[in-house]
């Protein structure tokens, strides 16, 4: 999904590889994000999300391939104040207030966001006079968000941004993020919460074992993994022949039920009826959870 034309993409990975010993944490990643897009990087813990982000921010360099931001190096973009980041491993600064911290960070950028606006957007205006090292985990997470916003960056990078937030705080955070993205900024966030990726991103990039295994909207990912699920009671019969039915991509047995992932649920149901195998029939669209499991399982099979 392209929001602008005639300008370099906000993010461009070209065959990027990063290894740590025998582990290929990032394994040949090709990824382009246009200016103005909001993209979710989705994967399980250890899938390669944080390493990919570290390459994007210039915290690590790829062993092979390259990474560019706005047509230049990550270092150039960061030094120019075009990138703001919210990372998982940041530590609280002792003996400073929230306002002092955000003011200090904003002062390092050429065209920062007004401090009051950053505090308000992050939902921590009421914490301005509180010491950073005396905040709760959820409050500290929102301070990290304000730090990322302080420079008014063109690209906002968020690594697991809703970790430690309760339901109300998560809702408020995503409202703030959508407000910021709606001003034409580019946002990349990593998460293992599928519902967050589906609800708040223009595109979802699924990464597994350091590789991109899918890239598209939530609906496109569901279709790629098999658009519908048809389930039946096995009633003592086996699954012989079920994988050969029209439209069926895969068959999974859960207890005494068979779950058929299919591209054409109508054709699948008709074929089941002809076999006399319709018992406890249920037809439902594949969820993003189903798509994620199918996509990552498929990747394992090919490794």
CATH architecture term of the largest domain:
3-Layer(aba) Sandwich
**Main sheet makeup:** 6 strands, mixed
How far apart lie the N and C ends? 29 Å
How many helices in DSSP terms? 10
Low-pLDDT runs of 5+ residues are: none
CATH superfamily of the largest domain: P-loop containing nucleotide triphosphate hydrolases
Helical/strand content category: alpha/beta
For this structure, the CATH topology of the largest domain is: Rossmann fold
Q: Walk across the major sheet and give the strand order.
A: 5-6-7-3-8-9
Strand content: 25-35%
Question: What number of domains?
Answer: 2
Class of the largest domain, according to the CATH hierarchy? Alpha Beta
| Mean pLDDT value | 90
Shape: elongated
Radius of gyration: 23 Å
**What percentage of residues falls in helices of 4 or more residues?**
25-40%
From N to C, what is the helix and strand string? Answer: EEEHEHEHHHEHEHEEHEEEHEH
- The overall strand count is 13
Question: In brief, what are we looking at here?
Answer:
By secondary structure, the protein is α/β, with parallel strands linked by helices. Helix content is 32%, strand content 27%. It folds into two domains: 11-221, P-loop containing nucleotide triphosphate hydrolases (Rossmann fold, 3-Layer(aba) Sandwich); 226-285, Alpha-Beta Plaits (2-Layer Sandwich).
């Amino acid at each position: 999904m392209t929001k602008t034309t005639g300008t370099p993409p906000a993010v461009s990975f070209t065959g990027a590889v990063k290894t740590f010993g025998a582990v290929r944490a990032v394994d040949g990643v090709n990824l382009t994000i246009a200016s103005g897009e909001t993209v979710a990087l989705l994967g399980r813990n250890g899938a390669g999300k944080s390493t990919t982000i570290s390459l994007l921010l210039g915290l690590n360099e790829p062993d092979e391939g390259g990474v560019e931001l706005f047509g230049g190096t990550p270092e150039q973009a960061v030094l120019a104040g075009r990138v703001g980041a919210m990372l998982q491993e940041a530590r609280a600064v002792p003996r400073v207030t929230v306002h002092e911290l955000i003011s200090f960070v904003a002062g390092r950028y050429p065209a920062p966001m007004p401090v009051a606006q950053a505090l308000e957007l992050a939902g921590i205006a009421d914490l301005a006079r509180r010491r950073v090292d005396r905040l709760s985990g959820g409050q500290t997470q929102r301070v990290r968000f304000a730090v990322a916003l302080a420079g008014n960056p063109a690209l906002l990078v968020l690594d697991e941004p809703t970790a430690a937030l309760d339901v109300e705080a998560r809702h408020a955070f995503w409202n703030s993020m959508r407000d910021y993205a709606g001003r034409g900024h580019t946002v990349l966030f990593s998460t293992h919460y599928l519902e967050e990726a589906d609800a708040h991103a223009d595109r979802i990039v699924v990464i597994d074992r350091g590789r991109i295994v899918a890239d598209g909207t939530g609906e496109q990912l569901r279709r790629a993994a098999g658009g519908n699920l048809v389930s039946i009671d096995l009633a003592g019969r086996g699954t012989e022949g079920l994988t050969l039915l029209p439209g069926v991509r895969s068959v999974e047995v859960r207890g005494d039920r068979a779950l058929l992932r299919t591209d054409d649920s109508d054709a699948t149901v008709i074929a089941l009826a002809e076999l006399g195998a319709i018992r406890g029939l249920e037809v439902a669209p594949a969820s993003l959870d189903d798509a994620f499991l199918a996509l990552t399982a498929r990747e394992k099979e090919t490794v």
